[in-house]
Each structure stands twice: as structure tokens, then as C-alpha cells.
Amino acid sequence: MQSEWRALTLPENAELFRKELFTYRIEDAQFDIELFETLQGEYYAIGINTDPSRLIVYGSTIVKNPQKALEQCIKKINRDQLHIDIFDIGEDASDRDEC
Fold first, then answer.
1. Is the distance from CB of 22 to CB of 30 less than 8 angstroms?
2. Are 68 and 43 contacting, i.e. CB atoms less than 8 angstroms apart?
3. Predicted confidence band of residue 7 (pLDDT cuts 50, 70, 90)
4. Cβ atoms within 10 Å of 22's Cβ, excluding its own
5. Residue 44 and residue 57 in contact, taking contact as beta carbons nearer than 8 Å
6. pTM
7. Which of 7, 9, 10, 66 could hold 43 in an S-S bridge, CB 3.0 to 4.6 Å?
8. In the sheet where 57-59 sits, what is the strand order?
9. C-beta separation of 38 from 63 below 8 A
10. Where are the domains of the chain?
């Protein structure tokens, strides 16, 4: 049922998303990453630290490629975990593909 779900007929004001779950570990931290796919074939990823004392949400932009969504999310997690500076506001915009 990889793509068949896109053929479903939904009410006018309804949305349906497909979700995949990933676990990302770096250093001593673990993150749950959810990759969402829309009926229109667009993707976005949301990552959350599993440490209950620290709630930070990392997210991608909406893109046409699932790999790109995961890469953007992981890049943001890595910046925070590895203390990498952000050089330009919106620098992830260069990672966006044609939307």
C-alpha cells in the first residue's frame, strides 16, 4: 500500500498523512523523528529529543523529497547537539527543493 492510499476519496475539509518513524542517536542523545507524507506527495520531518527534561522540536520545511526532509531535520539536530553556529538566517532555504 505504498502509493495506493493516495487514491482515497476524502471529504472536502479532510486531510490524510502517512507517517514513518525513525530513531536518531548522536553522542549521548536520542531523537524520535517522524516523517510525514501528504496526499500531494510532499514531505516534512519533525524531530523531538527523547529526554523528558528537555523539549525541543526540530522540523524541516515542506519538500518534494523524503530524504531532503530527513536531512533538514537531522541537520538542525546536529547543529544543536554539536554546538554548530548558524551563519545565516534561513540558511536551510538553500536545502529546499522545488515546492
1. no
2. yes
3. confident
4. 14
5. no
6. 0.81
7. 66
8. 17-26, 29-38, 43-49, 57-59
9. no
10. 16-84
